[in-house]
Specification:
Structural class of chain A: mainly alpha
Number of helices of chain B: 2
Number of helices of chain A: 8
Structural class of chain B: mainly alpha
Number of strands of chain A: 0
Helix content of chain B: 55-70%
Distance between the termini of chain B: 37 Å
Largest interface: A-B, 39 and 32 residues
Largest sheet of chain A: none
Number of domains of chain A: 2
Helix content of chain A: 55-70%
Order of helices and strands of chain B: HH
Strand content of chain B: under 5%
CATH topology of the largest domain in chain A: Arc Repressor Mutant, subunit A
Largest sheet of chain B: none
Oligomer: heterodimer
CATH superfamily of the largest domain in chain A: Winged helix-like DNA-binding domain superfamily/Winged helix DNA-binding domain
Number of strands of chain B: 0
CATH class of the largest domain in chain A: Mainly Alpha
C-alpha cells in the first residue's frame, strides 16, 4: 500500500478525457462541457482531502461533475427541451448490412434522451460502472438506475427504429423510403 | 467495474445499443482535451508549490 505517499491529484490528468466525455453527454455542448470539467477540477483539487484513498477516483470525480452540473442548472432554471415533443426525432436511418448503426445518427438520437437516461446509459452502458456504483454516484436506488437505463435503451430503439426480433432486411417501407430518397438526391 | 465484453444473454437490440453507446463514449473520450484544461492543472500544481 502506498497510502500517504502518492497524491491522487497527480492522477487527475488521466481522467480528463473521461470527465470531458461525461460532461459532453450531460451538456451536449462542447464549451459548456469544458466549463463543467474546469469547475470539477477546481473542486476536486481543493477538496482532495475528502477523497477516500483506495476508492475509485473516477467515480468520485464523476460524482463532483454531475453535482456541479445539476446545481448549476437548478440555479439558471434553464428550459429543458420536451424530448417527447421533438417530432424530427424519427431518424431516416437503418442499421447498415453488418447491423451497425451510423454512429452520428446514434449520437443524435442519444442526445434527445432525458438527462437522467443519458446519464444512466453513459455510466453503466458506456463507462462500465456497475449498477451499484452508478446508483451511489447519482444518489438513487439501484433499481432506479436500472429502470432509467432500460427506458433509455427502449427510447433509443424507438428513435432508431430497431425492434426486437426484427430482421435487418432492406425491404420494409421505412428502408425503401430512405433508399428512394438517397437515390433521387444522389 | 463490470466486464464490458459481449454478453450473449442480452437481447440483440440491447447489445447493439450498448455497443454503440461504448463507441460514442469512446469517440468523446478520444476528442482532444482542450489546452486550457491541461494548463489549469499545471497552474494548480504551481500554486501549490509556491505555498
Amino acid at each position: 500500500m502506498n497510502d500517504g505517499s502518492a497524491d491522487p491529484r497527480d492522477e487527475l490528468v488521466t481522467h480528463l478525457g473521461a470527465l470531458r466525455a461525461f460532461a459532453l453527454s450531460l451538456t451536449r455542448n462542447s464549451s459548456a462541457a469544458d466549463d463543467l470539467v474546469q469547475d470539477t477540477i477546481l473542486k476536486a483539487w481543493s477538496n482532495i482531502d475528502r477523497f477516500q484513498r483506495g476508492t475509485n477516483l473516477r467515480a468520485w470525480l464523476f460524482t463532483i461533475l454531475r453535482n456541479t452540473f445539476y446545481s448549476a442548472r437548478r440555479k439558471t432554471r434553464r428550459e429543458v427541451a420536451d424530448v417527447d415533443g421533438i417530432h424530427a426525432s424519427r431518424l431516416a436511418t437503418k442499421p447498415d448490412h453488418d447491423g451497425r448503426l451510423a454512429l452520428a445518427d446514434f449520437r443524435v438520437a442519444f442526445e434527445q434522451l432525458p438527462d437522467e437516461q443519458r446519464e444512466a446509459l453513459i455510466l453503466v452502458g458506456a463507462s462500465g460502472f456497475a449498477y451499484e456504483e452508478a446508483a451511489q454516484m447519482c444518489g438513487v436506488a439501484v433499481g432506479t438506475i436500472k429502470s432509467r437505463a432500460n427506458r433509455g435503451r427502449k427510447r433509443l430503439a424507438e428513435l432508431l427504429q430497431l425492434a426486437e426480433g426484427e430482421e435487418l432486411t432492406m425491404t420494409d417501407p421505412a428502408t425503401m423510403a430512405v433508399m428512394a430518397a438517397s437515390s433521387s438526391s444522389g | 467495474m463490470k466486464s464490458s465484453g459481449p454478453d450473449e444473454s442480452k437481447p440483440t437490440v440491447e447489445r447493439q445499443i450498448d455497443e454503440n453507446l461504448r463507441r460514442v463514449y469512446q469517440q468523446m473520450v478520444e476528442e482532444s482535451v482542450p489546452d486550457k484544461l491541461m494548463q489549469l492543472l499545471q497552474q494548480l500544481k504551481e500554486q501549490d508549490r509556491e505555498k
